[in-house]
Amino acid sequence: MDVFERVVITGVGLVSPNGNNLAEFRSALLSGVSGVLPYEVRYFGKTVAGVCNFPATKYQNRKDIRRGTRAGSIAIYCANEAVVDSGVDWERVDKSQVGVFIGITEHGNVETENEIYNIKQYDYDCKMWSHFHNPRTVANNPAGEVTLNLGITGAHYCIGAACAAGNAGIIQGVQMLRLGEVDLALAGGVSESIHAFGIFAAFAAQNALAEHGDPAKASRPFDVNRNGIVVSEGGCIYMLERLSDARRRNAKIYGEVVGYAMNSDATDFVLPNAERQLECMEKAIKRAGLKPDQIDIVSTHATATAMGDIQEINALRTLFKDSEKTYINNTKSFIGHAMGAAGVLELAGNLPSFGDGVIHPTINCDELDPECEIKNMVIGKPQNVGKINYILNNSFGMVGTNCVVIVGNF
User: Fold this and answer.
1) Domain 260-408 is of which CATH architecture?
2) Beta partners for 9?
3) Looking only at Cα atoms, what is the longest distance across the chain?
4) Is 78 annotated in the active site?
5) Contact 8, 227 (CB under 8 A)
6) What is the pTM of this model?
7) At what angle do helices 109-120 and 197-205 cross, to 10 degrees?
8) Would the pLDDT of 3 be above 90?
């Protein structure tokens, strides 16, 4: 297989706090509609979160939902939607040549917390521990649940890459297609994070959990008064194909994955490293055969933490300098931080820009932090800039993992 075989996106399936398909999601982003709501979680209490409401029973029966996991249900819904959206003749597809590659930030915390809570009611009698616990908590669960649901017998696994995991899922799908290991790749990321009290407690202990009187304004990257992360759930899975196969069946094409890169900070558990982020973006651009001023949209990772946003902007300033052509936006301001699903949802929200030339804004940035100033940041309202050729999608995660994916207009 030619390692330079071109790979394209032919289907999109998503679940987000402000939309359950690409059309709904994009409409919300252009209309300034937040998906962040008041939320209460066991032990921790009242907070805010990006909460998803999707029809899980569209593709699962209630027994399977009870037996499986929230992450699995999200993945199943997204994968099925991607299959339908792609237009592939699923009944005739060789399921042994389909791969499922799903990025996750963590998996099993929700189920473990729930089981411990349950056995506490029975004086910690382990006989009351669920016999479904092991298959629910293994790291490959969400991808595995997809294969069970869709009858896929090709390779499946999850990629643990913290908040860069969704982008890493895309990269894995591209690589497996280029290796000839699969003919179709369902690739992306999912998150069930809001159902674990521990993640809220941990961010609160770090003074990194967002607070605001109006939940819709809690997630505010780049704003001088930002005060932390809004935890969210969600998912997005893409159908990826080799361009030659997509052309053969006359598939619609959302975009082409033209470049990507991953690297590691190797400096801190949580504090991002702007120099390593810069190197990751540079490597992805070089792999794509591009120059920085050819990038039209940078979809930022910025989570609304004090130093995280500044570090990313520092890297962007160095790379793009005063480029007149490169525009900067952020999707977490609408939906919060969907962890393993963050990067893929953020990419999805920008993909329609290839067709309409419009860049969705960053919302809730009422007073831009001077340390986050950069040319062409789109704030408050959409901006029509005409033809858009390349989107650079940033995702950075804890313990210093960085992942950049570049998608081109086809």
Assistant:
1) 3-Layer(aba) Sandwich (3.40)
2) 240, 255
3) 65
4) no
5) no
6) 0.97
7) 110
8) no
Domain residue limits, the chain: 7-248, 260-408
Q: Would you call 163 a catalytic residue per the annotation?
A: yes
Domains 7-248 and 260-408 share a fold: yes
Active-site residue, selected from the candidate residues 158, 301, 360, 403? 301
Cα separation, 404 vs 284, whole angstroms: 6
337 is an active site residue: yes
Residue 118 pairs with which residues in a beta bridge? none
Options 78, 163, 365, 372, the catalytic residue: 163
pLDDT tens-digit series, residues 312-332: 999 999 999 989 999 999 999
- Provide the 3-class DSSP secondary structure of residue 32: coil
Q: Count Cβ atoms below 10 Å from residue 61 Cβ, excluding itself.
A: 10
> What residues does 190 pair with on adjacent strands?
104, 235
Element (H, E) at 114: helix 109-120
**CATH number corresponding to 7-248:** 3.40.47.10
Residues 339 and 361: their CA atoms lie apart, in Å, by: 20
Give me the mean pLDDT over the 283-307 stretch.
97
Q: Which residues pair with 299 in a beta bridge?
A: 329, 393
Active-site entry in 107, 195, 337, 360: 337
Question: Which DSSP string corresponds to 232-266?
Answer: B-EEEEEEEEEHHHHHHTT----EEEEEEEEEE--
Q: How confident is the model over 349-358, as pLDDT tens digits? A: 999 999 999 9
Q: Give me 386's structure tokens.
A: 């005409």
| Distance, CA of 399 to CA of 396 (rounded, Å) | 9
Residue 46, beta-bridge partner list: 40
Cβ–Cβ < 8 Å for 232, 335:
yes
The residue type found at 230 is: V
CA atoms lying within 13 Å on the CB side of residue 287: 21
What is the rounded CA–CA span in Å between residue 123 and residue 284? 54
Q: What is the pLDDT of residue 1?
A: 39
CB atoms within 10 A of CB 274: 18
